[in-house]
Design goal:
Elements lengths: L2 E5 L3 H12 L3 E5 L11 E3 L5 E3 L6 E3 L2 H7 L12 E5 L2 E5 L3 H8 L3 H11 L5 E3 H5 L4 H23 L8 H4 L3 E3 L12 E3 L5 H9 L4 E4 L4 H4 E3 L3 E3 L2 E2 L3 E4 L3 H4 L9 E11 L9 E3 L8 E4 L1 H4 L7 E10 L12 E2 L4 H14 L5 E3 L2 H4 L5 H15 L1
Parallel strand pairs: 1-2, 1-15, 2-11, 6-17, 15-21
Antiparallel strand pairs: 3-4, 5-10, 6-7, 8-9, 12-13, 13-14, 16-19, 16-20, 17-18, 18-19
Helix pairs in contact: 1-8, 1-14, 3-4
């Protein structure tokens, strides 16, 4: 079987490595860090709390193939994410549901809920755009409050631009639940976190006789492109799967792609519980977007201590001390898409070079989408 080299050790890499290894291919995975996991990396902190270094990762999907694959390596703990939002001394569920409307509108809530029920018969969710378009003064007033106080501030802060300039695909993900369900992912059948953590999950995926993982090995020191793909200075005829920054792969010859990043600050508190839910959003805060408490997600029985993280968004800068990790591609900027296309055309010159993951494909993936994309590339290579 052919030799295959993968750069990166996140969930996309682990998925395709395992699929190819089970077909008999010899896989070498190079990881620039001193540990595996990519942005799914989690670890146990000094107080025994399992935390996610890059913010909470909550697995959710309705894709049966993805679910069956991931649960080969660990069970999901069944955690259902129930986010709250704190606005003007009010605390209510997100996505917006009937309880949220009752908290926001109080005296008008019954009227608003009845109008939505009549307008959207047999619908479980609608978009906030649909709610805003309802021709009813009280519904419109409630929708405008939600838009201005919950989403506009948060989204603008998150992306560093007015909400009108944010990619429409992001805005279209804003749902209103027509009921009292509080799941943040109301349309997904399977939800939870790996019972033993994401790092252990990915370790189990790499645990195959045909997979070799090499840490502290940056692609720029191993992979070179000069008319052909070269590994350690020698022409390589096998397949290379690249999961890193596509602009870095070509030494930023056309310029740098834009990403948003997060400065995540962890705090340990000498209490059993800091907040009643795992995630509370703070759209009105001038800098912070949310506070996450990990014990609420992992169901750990760690007494007297808990760990939270506070997230502060900013522009990605590889030289920054706070924002040196690229999180979210800024696809609302057409210049970024044009720049990405230039790099993509460069990769097409090499039949044995394959892109996988959000950094190389310049696309935000939920974890199930990342796994699904790995399945598709596996079929192509196979």
């Amino acid at each position: 079987m052919a030799e295959i080299i993968i750069f990166g050790s996140g969930i996309s890499s682990a998925t395709i490595a395992r699929k190819l290894a089970e077909d008999g291919h010899k896989i070498t995975v190079y990881e620039k860090m001193d540990r595996i996991g990519g942005n799914c990396y989690d670890y146990v902190d000094a107080h025994g709390v399992l935390v996610h270094k890059y913010g909470p990762h909550i697995f959710h999907t309705s894709n049966e193939e993805v679910y069956q694959f991931i649960t080969r390596f660990d069970k999901l703990n069944g955690f259902i994410n129930t986010v709250k939002v704190s606005v003007n001394d009010l605390l209510f569920p997100l996505p917006i549901n009937y309880e949220s409307i009752a908290t926001i509108s109080k005296l008008d809530a019954e009227h608003i809920i009845n109008v939505l029920k009549e307008k959207f018969v047999d619908r479980a969710t609608i978009t906030l755009y649909e709610m805003k378009a309802v021709e009813d003064a009280k519904v419109s007033k409630c929708a405008e409050y939600i838009w201005n106080n919950v989403f506009a501030n948060y989204t603008s802060k998150m992306w560093g631009m007015p909400i009108q300039q944010v990619d429409s695909s992001i805005i279209n993900r804003i749902k209103v639940v027509l009921g009292n369900g509080e799941s943040y992912f109301p349309e997904d059948k399977y939800q939870g976190l790996p019972t033993k953590g994401y790092t252990n999950l990915i370790k189990s995926m790499f645990d195959h006789e045909n997979i070799k993982v090499v840490l502290n090995s940056h692609s720029k020191d191993i992979l070179s492109i000069d008319g052909s793909l070269q590994i350690n200075g020698k022409k390589f005829e096998g397949n290379v799967i690249y999961c890193g920054l596509i602009d870095e792969l070509f030494d930023y010859k056309f310029g740098e792609l834009e990403f948003r990043s997060l400065d995540i600050k962890f705090e340990s508190h000498n209490v059993d519980k800091f907040q009643n839910v795992a995630v509370i959003n703070y759209p009105a805060d001038p800098k912070m977007t949310r506070i996450c408490e990990y014990k609420n997600m992992t169901f750990q029985s760690v007494h007297d201590w808990t760990t939270i993280s506070k997230e502060f968004p900013g522009n990605y800068d590889k030289n920054s001390s706070s924002f040196s990790t690229p999180f979210y591609p800024v696809t609302s900027n057409k210049n970024n898409l044009s720049l990405y296309e230039l790099y993509l055309q460069e990769t097409k010159k090499y039949n044995n070079l394959h892109l996988l993951g959000r950094l190389s494909q310049y696309k935000y993936y939920d974890m199930d989408d990342a796994i699904s994309a790995a399945f598709e590339l596996y079929k192509k290579i196979k």
